[in-house]
Amino acid sequence: MTPVWTADLGDGTYRNPVLNADWSDPDVVAVGEDFYLTASSFGRAPGLPLLHSRDLVNWSLVGHALDRLEPAAEFAAPRHDRGVWAPSLRHADGRFWIFWGDPDHGIHQINAERVEGPWSEPHLLKAGKGLIDACPLWDDETGEAYLVHAWAKSRSGVKNRLTGHRMSRDGRTLLDDGEVVVDGDRIPGWFTLEGPKLYRHGGWFWILAPAGGVDTGWQGAFRSRDFFGPYEGRTVLAQGSTDVNGPHQGGWVRTRAGEDWFLHFQARGAYGRVVHLQPMTWDADGWPVLGDNGEPVRVHRKPIAPPQPVEAPATDDAFPGGRYGRQWQWTANPPSDSRPRSSSGYPDGGWTAEHGGDGLRLACVRSADAGDLRLLPNVLTQRLPAETFTAEVSLELEATGAGARAGLAVLGDAFSWIGLERGVDGRLRLVHRFAEAVAEHERDAAHARVVPDSTGGRVRLRVEVSAGARCRFHADTGDGWRPSGPVFAATPWRWVGALLGLFAVAPPGQGSAGTATFTRFHVT
After folding, report:
1. Residues 294, 367 within the same domain
2. Which end of the chain is more exposed for a tag (fewer CB within 10 A), N or C?
3. How many domains does the chain have?
4. DSSP letter at 270?
5. Containing domain of residue 436, as a range?
6. Per-residue model confidence as pLDDT tens for the chain (524 residues)
7. Quick check: bond before 230 cis, omega within 30?
8. Is 61 inside a domain boundary?
9. Do 282 and 364 sit in the same domain of this protein?
10. Rounded to 5 degrees, what are φ and ψ at 374?
11. What residues does 362 pair with on adjacent strands?
12. Among 455, 466, 472, 494, which residue's Cα sits nearest to residue 374?
């Protein structure tokens, strides 16, 4: 399948963003000829996506490192602004390591010999409120290990400072009480200093960290001969005359050819935080220079690397054997790990039903919150894959009980969906509903119409997304595509872009409510 967005222009150059979807707070590491990237996953499961590339331009999603969020019970319901914040990905002592801050619980780490896993269970390295954006460093010059992290004022009352620790090399123990290594309050004009990434280069300790907020901020660099400081700093990337607002938090990587590159995100509202790739050089005083003399590039020469096929993270899914692909995440932890698994090997807690053919069969989960998708944990989601696109899926609702429903949604702080609902008369109806950000319950967006018996209960559903994340829904109930309802303007959640979603629910009651089957999810 041709990706809906390609960064590789096919002539030795690339365009930004290299990942035109919500891969928030990216970090990257080079291991041999391979590059690996992870990103924030907040409250979705599985978490900690793992992407692979050979040239920093063409990326594929190869899995997830975190099966379920802990404490598991706390993430049994959607927690879109909690969970995994701003992870750091490193390779040291023959292992891959991921550290992240959960703002409500503290700093965790997991590790594995191979990026494919198995990954260790999460280890709570530092407990506390407001501990975020953690990054480790194994210093090969001294044999020491270190950790730096930022603070979330919403939980701790503290922000705009970075705290450093000495750490055991096994990543399980901090060896001191920590010190503030960079205090943003002491730097004129700096605020919301966060997202630090820690490196060793040229005899200096380096902290690359953004400030100024995700929409309008800038990227800073700090260096010191001693880990605990004092650090000197400067701005190394800012919007300038470009249209790339607030170039923010990311990671530095060096290729085997000796080139330096920097990946960072740009906040784009309902589309989430898309990922840009900047060339990186060093000036005569030893400071990094990012982009085009400190401003983001739109088009640039690709990194020196062997030729690579044009690639982007998958969107389409034929649901072979009834299993869903790696691009999908639930909006919360599935309730158990003893039921059928996705094609990624992750448990779905019985929210899907095994069957012999292709197509995703979702159980119509009974819920008192069936009228508000924002509250449901059993919505299977993926990121909006580009600024403009069309997503289609076919649906059959097998459930026979009144009130059972299933559909295709665009989901954020506001949501809209189109799909099928079983009426009290037993007949299937095509329905289109929405809820605004301030609304507690959904409302009809278009008059429901009975689905003809000749369709066998199957319909095709479509959402066309245009610039500005404006969504127009369509359905085909056997007589061709028809638009449904007014245009819906997608909105993000807090920290999270809008999502495409598939769901099946039913009103509260006893016993199984039946299933809904989705086939041929396709994005153009």
Report:
1. no
2. N
3. 2
4. G
5. 359-523
6. 678 999 999 999 999 999 999 999 999 999 999 999 999 999 999 999 999 999 999 999 999 999 999 999 999 999 989 999 999 999 999 999 999 999 999 999 999 999 999 999 999 999 999 999 999 999 988 899 999 999 999 999 999 999 999 999 999 999 999 999 999 999 999 999 999 999 999 999 999 999 999 999 999 999 999 999 999 999 999 999 999 999 999 999 999 999 999 999 999 999 999 999 999 999 999 999 999 999 999 999 999 999 999 999 999 999 999 999 999 999 999 986 434 444 444 344 579 987 878 899 999 999 988 889 999 999 999 999 999 999 999 999 999 899 999 999 999 999 999 999 999 999 999 999 999 988 777 888 887 888 877 677 799 999 999 999 999 999 999 889 999 989 999 999 989 999 999 999 999 988 888 999 999 999 99
7. yes
8. yes
9. no
10. -65, -20
11. 352, 516
12. 494
What is the CB neighbour count within 10 angstroms for residue 517? Answer: 23
Q: SS3 letters for 61-128?
A: EEEEEECCCCCCCCCCCCCCCCCEEEEEEEEECCEEEEEEEECCCEEEEEEECCCCCCCCCCEEEEEC
218 lies in the same domain as 296: yes
503 shares a domain with 390: yes
- The strand pairing partners of 364, in sequence order, are none
Given a contact cutoff of 8 angstroms between Cβ atoms, the answer to whether 217 and 236 are in contact is no
Q: Could you say which DSSP state residue 444 is in? A: E
188 Cβ contact list (under 8 Å, min separation 6): none
What is the chain's length?
524
**Cα–Cα nearest to 129, from 148, 146, 154:** 154
Question: If DSSP states are collapsed to H, E and C, what string results for 317-361?
Answer: ECCHHHCCCCCCEECCCCCCCCCCECCCCCECCCCECCCCCCCEE
Q: Are residues 144 and 227 in the same domain?
A: yes
